[in-house]
Design a protein that fits this description.
Distance between the termini: 16 Å
Order of helices and strands: HHH
Pfam family, one: DUF3262
Strand content: under 5%
Keywords: Membrane, Transmembrane, Transmembrane helix
Protein name: Integrating conjugative element protein
Number of strands: 0
Radius of gyration: 19 Å
Number of domains: 1
InterPro entries: DUF3262
Largest sheet: none
């Protein structure tokens, strides 16, 4: 954005574009970290009830962690 457009955006939005981008990235980060916790806890519950083997617990947890790392890399402020 040009200087004039940036000042107009800040005046009407109440925050700068960088602050708004940081807030959106933080909300997305909390969402995908909550998803990771939900996946791992679900797998742990299934493993502790002897519904799935330990390999499935580890495999699904690692896959979800890789997805979270990729999303975290692409959703940077």
């Amino acid at each position: 954005m040009s200087g004039d457009a940036s000042s107009q955006f800040e005046q009407w939005a109440g925050a700068s574009g960088a602050d708004l981008g940081l807030a959106i990235a933080a909300i997305v980060a909390v969402t995908y970290l909550s998803w990771l916790m939900w996946v791992v806890m679900g797998q742990f519950r299934a493993w502790s009830d002897r519904e799935t083997p330990m390999f499935d617990l580890l495999w699904v947890s690692v896959r979800a962690a890789v997805v979270v790392m990729l999303v975290g890399y692409f959703i940077r402020p």
